[in-house]
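Human: I hope this is not a bother. Would you mind checking the protein record under this note? Thank you for your patience.
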Amino acid sequence: QVQLVESGGGLVQTGGSLRLSCAASGFTFSNYAMGWFRQAPGKEREFVARITWSISATSYADSVKGRFTISRDNAKNTVYLQMNSLKPEDTAVYYCARNRPAGTHYTGYGYDYWGQGTPVTVSS
């Protein structure tokens, strides 16, 4: 069955960096675009970044553009989210998800499988 397992979250100070990983299994990883979302306490889930399956084209939410980088290693069935210059408003649980083949990439409705999430806390 499809599994997505995130790791790499933790506590970091403002301005610090973290790299999240999402290990995928149970499907042909290289055939799917993958995305990262986040959900802060009391807020709705929001799109963070997405990477395509073919040419690894990327897209980002405006709030993270220039600070976060999504990448993938198809040989390792893993997608990454490098987060630099972290701010307190980046505090959230971060989820990776598999993009439906014809799904939109900027809302959760376009994704069919989700990981359990990894928490990120940025202290001020």
The chain has no helices and eleven strands. The mean pLDDT is 96. The first strand starts at residue 3 and ends at 7. The two ends are 40 Å apart (CA to CA).
